[in-house]
Amino acid sequence: MGVIIGLILICCVGLVTSEAIAIEQILSLCCQEGEEWGTQNRLCSSFNKSLELVPGELRGLCLSTIEICCSKQHKIYQCTAGQIAARQGLSCSLKGDHSGSEFYTDCCEACKIGLVVGSSSSKCSVEPFAFGSPWDEVYDGCCKDIKQDTFILNEDDENNLCSRFDNLCSQICENTVAGSYVCKCYPGYTLMDDRKTCAQITSEDENEIPSDNSLSDCRIGYEKDQRTGECVDVDECETGEAVCDAQLQVCMNVEGSYKCLDIQDVKCDAGFRYDRKTGKCEDIDECEDSSACDEGFQCVNIKGSYDCIAVVKNYPLPTPAPKKKIEACAPGFRRHNDQCVDIDECSADKYACDSNQVCTNEIGGFRCDCKIGFMLDQVTNACVDINECQINAHECLESQRCDNTIGSYTCIRLQSCGTGYTLNAETGNCDDDDECALGRHNCVAPYECFNTKGSFRCRQRSRYAPAVVVSGQSAQVTTSTTTTTTSTPRPVYYTQPPRTQPQYGPVYQPTNQGQQVEYNRYLGSCGIGFERSALGACVDIDECARGNVCRPNQRCVNGNGSYRCHDLLICPNGFTANNDGTECLDVDECLTGEAKCGPDQVCKNKRGGYVCLCPAGHIIGRNHRCEDVNECDLHKGKVCPQNSECINTVGSYRCDCKDGFRKSRPEDLICTDVDECNEIPGLCHQRCINYWGSYRCGCEPGYKLANDNRTCDDVDECEEYKSNNLCVGFCENTPGSYGCRCPPGYKLGHDGRSCIDIDECEPRDVCNGRNEICTNIRGSYRCTRINCPHEYEIDPDRSNRCRRTTKYCNPGDTECLRKPTSYSYNFITLVSNMPVPPSGRALFNLRGPAWYEAIDFDLKLLSVDAPPNVQPADQRFFSLNKLSNEVLLNLVKSIEGPQDIELELSMTVFKDGQPYGSNIAKLFLMISAYEF
């Protein structure tokens, strides 16, 4: 924000220049874009139009301007809608999450107050209220819009507040005896907490609806049918009573009311499609497609579906069974087994979310969440990779380099382990080598090895403790390895280190006084501060007796193996006596080396002491060592300008531009956006969208973004959506799209997906042989020759029937009567695996005379011709349904194609108990290889 304000100030200072005028014009155009986007009621943060014409350094300001102007337009729209609701007496509560919804409620309430005040002939001044913006303007406008009627009041009118003031209640206003009023609601509605607005009672509370016929014959949302006298639902969408935004919303009628749905949320049930002209889900007339039903069946359209009814000549068309009324499901649901079930959008559409998102199905919808390692960019609403290395959200060691990867990061070792350490392959850490245990030291007796981090030390095995002052005063004690200083005060000064008397075996004693001492073994040398006596024993050296071992102002005190120099003049800490012992002089610890400053510290002497100073950019930390000041953490967000990140350095810091930004010149402080799309050719495979600090690759329709988020892969619609039956025939994938193809004998329908059978028999000269009949089948045709049996001939009236040459039989000629009067040859074509309802599907009808005494029907399966991989049909696939003097042949199981089936259906008529005549219908079923 600081950078934006700074840029605005720059614009204001240089307003008279042509460059400033150009910036103002550009931002004005950006505001117009935001207002247009907001007018369409779109989410302001989802603005995705190209900003190619805007200079790269101004695109951030442009996006901010677009969002501000878009939000302003949302507020204006919601405020206007709130005023409309107030004038119509509707509730001021807005259901759902809408941008600027708080302005809807505020403007609605302010308008209602203005309407009441205006109705009372009072002044419309806002001074007594002073609500502020936008309440004052709305209140004033609604108050002044009320027509000021002239009242001639009588005593009754003064108490009749409901008639004097409109809009006191949203539905019913009743005066009270006390000169006030109460609000009531129509049946089916309940009074809200504001005691004036009515809301519809939900279906769960319908049992609590009071019945008050004195208020209205029908509830709100219903009207009386003049013909039946019953209350029927009013279609507010049809009558125009609904108040919906025609450009952004769709009116949907519900029982007793209506709903305003956003256009993008409208989903129609199966068998319906949304019509923008009517604003409704209109029924799809499947019967407009000539291939909806098989040949020999009539298509009957019904709401949301259709039915195929078998057509039999001279046989009345059966009335379709009444269908149960199908209610529309809410958005995000579909109908299944007469119930509304949730649509799993994540399974139905693999690309409902971006490749960097995880789709989670919810009841009635779904949501897209960023994968691990990604975060939502508030500007583009896209999931972008988190640079864990940049924000220090990794677990790499100091000896490792963090490399960012898409969705994660890796740790790369920078250097090998130093001397005294070995790399642990499992942990990646440098473990200390124990040189003492490994035998890699050079310590010899009387020293022992002591392991340290990265090294070792040789320390002496001590048998005696160092000399200790027993006078109660502190002393400076010095050994060969360590130094410990306590100097308050300093009464003793040693001129040499303390010494420890060594231990040896017993001294060899001579056998008599005059005998010369002889050493039978090696006794060793004495330690410092000791010397060997004439008898060979180590005895203490009295240094004080030798003189001049202490300074003139000190007194020498001999000790065992050592000596002490006591100051005659005791100086405080940080001071020492002069050579004469007459005065205390300041000790410059920085020069003498007594100061305990670290290697990275500067020693500064002070009277009586010293201080250790740290270099610039450092502070005294733990263990009195200088630690670097991390200015980036200490002054987070304040040391570097916008679009840059703070990098701490030893003793200082630097500001580096974030990825996607750079400085126009090295000396500049401001980081401007890098337009990667224009500067890097071929950055994206198809579409490149630059936005503030980065870019995003997109794909053309029919393509999807690959895992590298750069290249585009073709979507194989035929494979991805094969369960959706994109094509009735064969689906062929093409780059960026797909196409439908039909097998031979079919042609592609006007919708580009249906396969319509070609009727090869339509030309009359297809089958030219004698007694040949052309039969069209799905995808082909057959020329079938009818060969009449002996003593039968082709019926001139019916080319598919053979009649008996002997038309009449002599009385008592039983053999003649048993011969069929005619043979009919009937050809029926079916698609493979044609759906069969539980009640069966009618195939053929055979009817006898009305004067019959008895009729017998019989069905025989004569032959079946099917390839080895297809299940042949048998007689169990068919059933006979006898009805009075006729019979219906039904198909009760689906037949797989291709295969040919020959059936024989016979009918014998009896009179006086004897056969009186018969007919035979030969049925040739031709099952195609396709299911369409």
TrEMBL record:
Keyword Hydrolase: no
InterPro entries: cEGF, ECM_structural_protein, EGF, EGF-like_Ca-bd_dom, EGF-type_Asp/Asn_hydroxyl_site, EGF_Ca-bd_CS, Fibulin_C, Growth_fac_rcpt_cys_sf
Keywords for this protein: Calcium, Disulfide bond, EGF-like domain, Extracellular matrix, Glycoprotein, Repeat, Secreted, Signal
Keyword Secreted: yes
Subcellular location: Secreted, Extracellular space, Extracellular matrix
PROSITE patterns: ASX_HYDROXYL, EGF_2, EGF_3, EGF_CA
Main location as per UniProt: secreted
Residues in EGF-like domain copies: 158-199, 342-380, 586-627, 628-667, 673-713, 714-756
Residues annotated as signal peptide: 1-18
GO annotation, cellular component aspect: cell periphery
Listed GO MF terms: calcium ion binding
Superkingdom, taxonomy of origin: Eukaryota
Stretches for region Disordered: 480-504
Family statement: Belongs to the fibulin family.
PANTHER family: ADHESION G PROTEIN-COUPLED RECEPTOR E1, EGF-LIKE DOMAIN-CONTAINING PROTEIN
Protein name according to UniProt: Putative latent-transforming growth factor beta-binding protein 4
The organism's taxonomic lineage, starting at the top: Eukaryota, Metazoa, Ecdysozoa, Arthropoda, Hexapoda
